[in-house]
Q: What sequence folds into this?
């Protein structure tokens, strides 16, 4: 920072983002998602009021990256744990950070019922269509035909079923206040993702019930392509299957400017 | 407080309320459902949290989350539901936070039935979730004891930062008898220095059971063992009946112990010098006291509502010094006092052998009773 005056400063670490080396792979978009959440916590001055719930998966260490209180849940159980915390501390902000295996496979019951109850929590859902931590196995969100280490011939939907669109499913539940899907594959979409995360936390602060932002993300390591190709892969292959839409927006949020 | 006619499940619920429980999460399952139903109106009445979860898996993880905020939190269930909670219990033990769980045991394995059983002894006392940990386990034999042990479970869980389980059976949960409730404690307004409630004017806190470096995890396991050693030194509880001059002893916990007491009294009336030893803390188990009894008596009879799960702890404690015999009923069947009385008479008649498997003898002697539907039950 030496020699840089405040008027020149265009980029700095959010106070809510811990100053630690990343453990994520090169090109992975977890880091982008982490930063966006930290920026929102800073902007809304929520760092001291927030409790995060980390999942099992690549982001199992999410708690290392945020300067707020954190707990670490069992695989898929983050929404249940967040429920316990939020019910005890209704004036605090509680968010979970979950991958597709955690949220859409083993944790399907917990996420559905948290949303159905209108649990006033925010869920950041990272969908990269693969199990990253365990080395690239098929996820519930793996695309038809997509090769993984447990679907080496490509996901055969006749045998292995179809990808699950969580945002669409959760938007059918009356307890949900804000459900959208965004992507992290280019700057424009990253800005839109940031705005959605902000609105999701605003929804919780206003007591509007369950909020979730699904973020299409990359996994260059397990997809076996370069970080740049991964960004293109999201745009060309994932977005058509997982449209970037607003699936449910509480009327109270409709006029919100962030 | 006056004596009231109370049902076990409801009495345990009210005892938890009076112990200051601030959050209850559960799922309906017979024979503990009245506990959940009681909480569903009682907790909101006091401005506290009741939530019926979508599963026992979710319930225990809600308890986990609530307990992380430093409040007294609990769940209750019965055998198949408790199986589902084992994952969460292991995480809670690994995170070193206090939680209370009430298991109102029923017949098993599998879906089993809804009748009283003690078949979860091994699961709760010796096993349960993955990894190295020891929950505190307390076994009531009456509604009054169920009340007292529920309150104690909260105190011990807080003191040792561990899950504490009240291991009741369907009989304790369903039966009504006069009992006295404890005074109402205030709910907590100041919270422990590990509680996660927002990092206001302090460093952030992280509650987790993950220690990715095995060397660090080993330190954590060592810390858990140090605490467990302390628990073993301080928290052994049991009740003794007619043991001063006893030549024989029946050992049984919970309802089996209570049934055995009737048999012991009948045997005393016949001049048989027998007493009852009823472990209350199953974990920590009163090994030292059982070992001392093995030096005092001529034979031990273990009575359980399972296939002899606590029997192995008695054998471990008595170290082959005296014959250990077994009598059990299984699958949700209760033993009657006269059955245990007959066993006591057999013990007193002798002779007994040390180097035999007590389970085999029990099965052979009772093959007709246990193995056919013509049995009297």
A:
């Amino acid at each position: 920072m030496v020699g840089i005056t405040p008027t020149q400063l265009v980029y700095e670490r959010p106070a809510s983002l811990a100053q630690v080396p990343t453990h994520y792979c090169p090109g992975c978009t977890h880091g982008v998602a982490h930063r966006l959440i930290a920026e929102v916590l800073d902007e809304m001055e929520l760092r001291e009021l927030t409790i995060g719930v980390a999942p099992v998966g690549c982001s199992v260490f999410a708690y290392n990256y945020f300067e707020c209180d954190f707990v670490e849940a069992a695989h898929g159980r983050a929404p249940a744990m967040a429920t316990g915390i939020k019910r005890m501390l209704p004036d605090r902000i509680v968010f979970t950070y979950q991958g597709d295996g955690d949220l859409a496979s083993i944790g399907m019951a917990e996420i559905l019922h948290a949303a159905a109850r209108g649990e006033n929590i925010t869920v950041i859902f990272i969908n990269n269509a693969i199990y990253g931590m365990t080395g690239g196995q098929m996820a519930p969100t793996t695309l038809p035909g997509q090769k993984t280490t447990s679907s080496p011939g490509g996901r055969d939907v006749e045998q292995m079923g179809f990808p699950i669109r969580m945002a669409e499913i959760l938007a059918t539940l009356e307890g949900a206040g804000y459900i959208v899907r965004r992507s992290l594959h280019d700057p424009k979409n990253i800005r839109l993702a940031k705005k959605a995360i902000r609105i999701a936390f605003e929804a919780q602060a206003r007591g509007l019930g369950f909020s979730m932002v699904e973020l299409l993300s990359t996994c260059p390591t397990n997809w076996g392509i370069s970080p740049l190709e991964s960004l293109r892969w999201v745009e060309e292959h994932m977005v058509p299957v997982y449209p970037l839409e607003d699936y449910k927006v509480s009327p109270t949020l409709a006029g919100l400017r962030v | 407080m006056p004596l009231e006619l109370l049902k076990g499940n409801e009495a345990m619920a009210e005892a938890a309320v009076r112990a200051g429980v601030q959050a209850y999460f559960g799922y309906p399952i017979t024979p503990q459902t009245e506990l959940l139903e009681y909480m569903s109106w009682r907790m909101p009445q006091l401005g506290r949290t009741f939530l019926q979860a979508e599963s026992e898996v979710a319930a225990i993880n809600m308890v986990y989350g609530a307990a992380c905020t430093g409040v007294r939190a609990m769940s209750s269930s019965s055998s198949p539901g408790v199986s589902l909670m084992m994952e969460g219990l292991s995480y809670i033990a690994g995170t070193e936070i206090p939680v209370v769980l009430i298991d109102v045991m029923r017949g098993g394995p599998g879906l089993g039935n809804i009748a009283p059983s003690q078949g979860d002894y091994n699961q709760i006392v010796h096993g349960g979730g993955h990894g190295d940990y020891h929950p505190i386990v307390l076994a009531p034999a009456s509604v009054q004891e169920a009340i007292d042990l529920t309150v104690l479970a909260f105190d011990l869980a807080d003191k040792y930062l561990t899950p504490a389980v009240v291991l009741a059976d369907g009989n304790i949960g369903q039966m009504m008898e006069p009992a006295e409730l404890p005074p109402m404690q205030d709910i907590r307004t100041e919270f422990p220095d590990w509680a996660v409630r927002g990092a206001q004017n302090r460093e952030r806190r992280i509650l987790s059971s993950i220690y990715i470096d095995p060397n660090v995890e080993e330190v954590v396991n060592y810390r858990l063992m140090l605490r467990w050693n302390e628990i073993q030194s301080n928290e052994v509880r049991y009740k003794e009946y007619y043991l001063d001059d006893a030549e024989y002893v029946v050992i049984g916990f919970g309802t089996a112990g209570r049934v055995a007491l009737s048999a012991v009294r009948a045997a005393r009336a016949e001049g048989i010098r027998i007493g009852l030893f009823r472990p209350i803390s199953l974990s920590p188990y009163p090994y030292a006291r059982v070992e001392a009894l093995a030096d005092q008596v001529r034979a031990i009879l273990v009575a359980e509502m399972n296939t002899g799960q606590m029997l192995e702890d008695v054998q471990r404690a008595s170290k082959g010094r005296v014959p250990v015999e077994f009598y059990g009923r299984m699958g949700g069947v209760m033993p009657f006092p006269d059955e245990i009385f007959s066993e006591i008479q057999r013990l007193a008649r002798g002779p007994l052998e040390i180097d035999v498997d007590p389970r085999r003898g029990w099965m052979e002697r009772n093959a007709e009773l246990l193995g056919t539907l013509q049995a009297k039950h």
Summary: Chain A touches chain B at residues 47-51, 53-54, 60-61, 63, 66-74, 77, 80-85, 87-89, 92, 109-110, 112-113 (CB under 8 Å). Chain A has one domain: 30-254. Chain A has a mean pLDDT of 96.
